[in-house]
Design goal:
alpha/beta, MutS, DNA mismatch repair protein, Chain A, domain 3, Rossmann fold, 5 domains, 6-stranded mixed β-sheet, 5-stranded antiparallel β-sheet, 21 helices, 15% strand
Length: 724
């Protein structure tokens, strides 16, 4: 059973992460649930939750995007359904249709895409698919959310009567309006509406001449609003009918509400399901912001984080445009506890918080910003002691509070525990506090817990050096400038650089020297040795980095020279072949010339032919006769070359076609100008520019100066407007 205390979650600032996730939720209920996220109590639930987020995040890259899951909360509607004789109004019923439709769309989507989203589909199968709610409401309400006329025969009759009376009222009012306006009794506005009734806007001086009920007056008193006497009877009759209509609508809505009461549990399930999808979507959006991934979750006891970022620091630095340094750290069976030492402001606490926050985020079902090859096991308990824990309410000092906390650690610590302690042992006398801290650390070690602590105590560094499954580590510093490099280095303890930092900050050397004399020589030598080791390592790292750069450059130069040499060699070989071929041609030419001269002198044809045949046979003996198989291979090679050339030509043609389509699309997307007489235009793809003389029936007569022509408007391209 996994249980992680609220104090741990607060120490690691999980609440801030939850605020970010709540902001990304679409629904109010989703926001509320997001703020209540805690680590999962079982591995099964956690694995399902992580797969949900992983699958949802992968949907951003798929063509099959997950549909909208937004909905209006129906908590009040569910409460009304639970009250006897209460009924839902039309706007309440529209919410029920919306949530049912949204749920059905998601269930249908996951069913048809179960290969892409297997876990999301599996979860969705637990929610029933039904259109009964939608059908019941659609039978009563129209698409505008009004009760249908045919919802009952009584309502239909009442609405017909209302329409008749309304028509009579409007006709009567219209006659009075025309009559009194003709007599000049009405103001310029003629009429108005008071208490949803049409009234005449009568000038105050003529109010006694217009028969009817006075409904009010204007602010200045110059206009009196009167409902004509002839329309009063229709108004009363209309009011009575509207009252009866409302009574009938309430009766219909009550009956519909009773029909929907059996679906209370299903509606609650719908709301829970959609709010859960909302949280999954918000976690996915947050993962996208962080470039977060799902690392390998291993059953072995191992915590290996590569390129791990603190989420809050990463987002904060991203907003400021500053760089965030990732950390790589590993805890295994043979390296269970890491003791990080070194000067303050080097990133020790951030490294500690990064490990803790990423662990609780993962165990709360969130993806984390690490390299995908990271490996993480799950812990039943995560214990933290981070920051200044002075308790004003309990009147405890920092050290008393820490001792109380250590006592809690001793009770809870096991081989399924990860503990994270910042500035371990501080708050008391360095000698005594350090000894007690060492005793605590030995207990944690014996119980095979995993943990990371930060400290300045030399005895804890020495203990980490002595025990086989505990390792020293330090945050790297530039030995010359003493500026932090924000990189964790395993295997060595870190110097606090106490005196060096003091000297850098302008403290007089005489005062520093005086302080050195007050400290035991052994401690100074120990700290100085560590500092020197760190300086040497810093130099070695720079040298290694420089050598690697040079080696890389040398390798690149070697490859370049080898390629150049290969190219030159090929050229030399081709030149040699050409030279040999030319020499052979010269030799043959010389032979033919000799034969020619000999024939010129003796005119013996037979001798000439015999000599020439000998030369040809000698040359043919040098040629290698190709077999049928070799000829076929040669032909295949030639065909392959031809095919490659044809494919390249085809690709070039396709690219040209695509380019042409894009250009045509761009032309089509341009807003078309409405052509007018006098505009300068040209035919599409034409060069000659003319002026529109007349436009008639989607055709224009264009004057080119020398001649005129009749052209359809859609064949013309606008050039410029006629200058006024």
């Amino acid at each position: 059973m996994i249980r992680i205390s609220e104090k741990t979650l607060k120490d690691l600032e999980l609440d801030t992460v939850l605020d970010h996730i709540a902001e990304l939720c679409n629904t109010d209920y989703g926001k509320t649930k997001a703020l209540e996220i805690v680590p999962f109590s079982t591995k099964e639930k956690l694995h399902t939750a992580l797969q949900h987020v992983y699958e949802y995040k992968s949907s951003y890259l798929n063509d099959a995007r997950i549909p909208n899951h937004g909905y209006d909360s129906i908590t009040k509607e569910i409460q009304l359904l639970q009250i006897e004789n209460a009924f839902l109004e039309a706007f309440n019923l529209k919410k029920l249709i919306s949530i049912s439709t949204t749920t059905n769309e998601l269930l249908t989507f996951f069913k048809s895409n179960k290969e892409l989203y297997p876990i999301l589909h599996k979860t969705s199968t637990e929610v029933p698919f039904t259109k009964e709610i939608i059908l019941l409401i659609d039978k009563i309400l129209d698409k505008f959310g009004e009760v249908r006329d045919n919802a009952s025969s009584t309502l239909l009759g009442l609405r017909k009567q209302i329409n008749i009376i309304q028509a009579k009222l409007n006709g009567s009012f219209g006659k009075d309006l025309s009559r009194y306006n003709g007599l000049g009794y009405l103001d310029e506005i003629k009429e108005s509406v008071v208490d949803n009734l049409r009234v005449l806007a009568v000038k105050a001086m003529y109010r006694r001449k217009v028969k009817g009920a006075i409904m009010g007056s204007s602010k200045t008193g110059s206009i009196v609003y009167i409902e004509p006497e002839t329309t009063l009877q229709y108004s009363r009759e209309l009011s009575n009918l509207q009252y009866e209509e409302r009574e009938e609508v309430v009766k219909i809505l009550k009956a519909l509400t009773n029909d929907l009461r059996p679906f209370i549990e299903l509606l609650e399930q719908y709301q829970e399901y959609l709010s859960d999808v909302d949280i999954v979507a918000a976690k996915s959006k947050y993962a996208k912001r962080l470039n977060a991934v799902l690392p390998k979750i291993t059953e072995k006891r191992e915590l290996t984080l590569q390129d791990a970022y603190h989420p809050l620091l990463y987002l904060n630095n991203k907003t400021k445009g500053e760089k965030t340094y990732p950390q790589t750290i590993s805890l295994k069976e043979d390296n269970r506890i890491i003791v990080i030492s070194g000067p303050n402001a080097g990133g020790k606490s951030i490294t500690l918080k990064t490990i803790g926050l990423l662990q609780v985020m993962l165990q709360s079902g969130m993806l984390i910003p690490v390299h995908e090859y990271s490996r993480i096991c799950l812990f039943n308990t995560i214990l933290t002691d981070i920051g200044d824990n002075q308790s004003i309410e309990n009147h405890l000092s920092t050290y008393s509070y820490r001792l109380k906390n250590m006592n809690y650690f001793l009770r809870k610590c096991s081989d399924k525990t990860l503990f994270l302690i910042d500035e371990f042992g501080t708050g008391s006398d360095p000698e005594l506090g350090g000894a007690l801290a060492e005793a605590f650390l030995e207990v944690f070690y014996e119980r095979e817990s995993f943990g990371i602590i930060t400290t300045h105590y030399a005895n804890l560094k020495m203990l980490a050096n002595e025990l086989p499954n505990m390792t020293n580590a330090n945050m790297l510093f530039d030995a010359r400038t003493l500026e932090p490099l924000f990189k964790l280095h395993l295997g060595e303890a870190g110097s606090s650089f106490t005196f060096e930092v003091a000297q850098k900050n302008g403290i007089p050397y005489s005062l520093i020297n005086k302080a050195k004399k007050k400290v035991e020589r052994g401690k100074i030598r120990f700290d100085k040795s560590i500092a020197n080791l760190q300086k040497e390592r810093s130099k070695l790292q720079k040298t290694t980095s420089s050598l690697k750069t040079k080696e890389q450059k040398a390798e690149e130069e070697k490859e370049r020279l080898e390629k150049t040499n290969e190219r030159i060699q090929r050229k030399l070989e081709s030149y040699q072949e050409l030279y040999d071929s030319n020499q052979r041609m010269i030799y043959l030419g010389q032979k033919v010339d000799d034969l020619s001269e000999k024939y010129f002198n003796n005119k013996k044809k037979r001798e000439l032919i015999n000599e020439f045949i000998k030369i040809v046979e000698v040359e043919n003996s040098k040629r290698k006769k190709q077999t049928v198989k070799q000829q076929k291979v040669k032909k295949v090679k030639e065909q392959k070359v031809v095919k490659e050339v044809e494919e390249k030509v085809k690709v070039i043609r396709e690219k040209k076609k695509e380019q042409k389509k894009k250009e045509e699309k761009t032309i089509q997307q341009k807003p078309k100008v409405v052509l007018k007489i006098g505009d300068r235009v040209r035919m599409i793809d034409g060069k000659s520019i003319g002026t529109i003389d007349t436009i008639e029936k989607r055709k224009a007569i264009v004057n080119y100066g020398v001649f005129t022509t009749n052209v359809a408007l859609d064949q013309l391209e606008f050039v410029e407007r006629k200058k006024k």
